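Lecture notes, unit on protein representations.

Consider one protein chain, 185 amino acids long.
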Amino acid sequence: MKRMDLRRYKTTSNTTLFNAEKKGRKLLEMGDLMEHLSLVVDFELFRAQLGDVLPPKERKSDAGAKRYDVVTMFKLMVLQCYYNLSEEQAEFQIVDRNSFRRFFGLVEGDLVPNTYTIWLFRECLVKSGKTGGLFQQFVDCLYSKELIFNEVRMVNTSFVNVQKQRNTPNKNKRINAGKGDDWAD
């Protein structure tokens, strides 16, 4: 296969130290929701309510994985609601998108919450009975800043492979006519 010569097409500029800053400014000008939320909403206001959502973890030593910050996890729940993301998609988006990592204060190479961690936090949040109050407080905070968050919903969606029907048209006619006794094959 012949390789296409791309030199005749417009390309990006040379990489400089200021590319990330330029990109950040451009995203903000275009309306980066997460950057705007970071500037407008003080998520630390939710820390007091989130404090006892996770059960206390008894540690014998400082070895092993540390927990993710509860405010970071709440921010993740907000983005899941806004973008209608499953736990799998939330993990993927944090790994894939710079804007998500910036929103959580993560840099390239930082560990991100995995699907199970996101699910577990959601379960603990629901069991604590604070879900409605926290999201209502978040919506009230947005309204006080003259912003609108259309709706808050918690949805867990994922794609699964479905078996394809392998019946012939004649077999479908027999089944629809009530003569589908050939299920054994």
